[in-house]
Amino acid sequence: MYAIGIIAIAYLFFRENDIQIKKSLRIGIILCTTIMVAMTALYCKQALDIKKFKEERKETAQGLITYMRDNPSKLFVFNNYHHLLFNEPVLEIKSSDTYKNAMELSNYELYNDTYYKMVNKFNLEYPDRLLIDLAENDNVYYVAHNRWKVDNVITYIREHTNKKVKTEVIKSFDNSDIKIYKIHYK
Fold this sequence. Notes:
Layout: H1 2-13, H2 19-70, E1 75-78, H3 81-86, E2 102-104, H4 113-121, H5 130-136, E3 140-144, H6 147-161, E4 165-172, E5 179-185
Parallel strand pairs: 1-2, 1-3
Antiparallel strand pairs: 3-5, 4-5
Helix pairs in contact: 1-2
């Protein structure tokens, strides 16, 4: 946008006899305008794709929330449930207090009062080692949308406990890559 403005202003200041310069500036204006139109089209397509993604994810999110509410004695650990459930910025949704049995591995609530209340509520043996509790506590489940994230957690547990680890898909949701996993020692 700035480039077009600068080129247009420069175009006005050159005299009529500077034909070659004015011709170059016209080409610059055309190029900048073309790039701006292309970028606007790309932005609009991306906005539509995000809207479609949110609509598709909404049904899965509702199913996951219902499953969590139906299982209040289980703790569901997410990498980032704001993204998995809503695909919205953190400030646009409710806090995790809405979900009495869900917590994230990393966010602004990690290692504060909310975190330790959840740890105490579910009697986690290692309050500072939540990933270990995924394997050692029968009521702690992992929710992920990418298998590689699950594999990373398995690697972490294996490296920190020197035990073999396996996973089991407890629940999957139609038309979604989101799954609830239970991690066990072999």
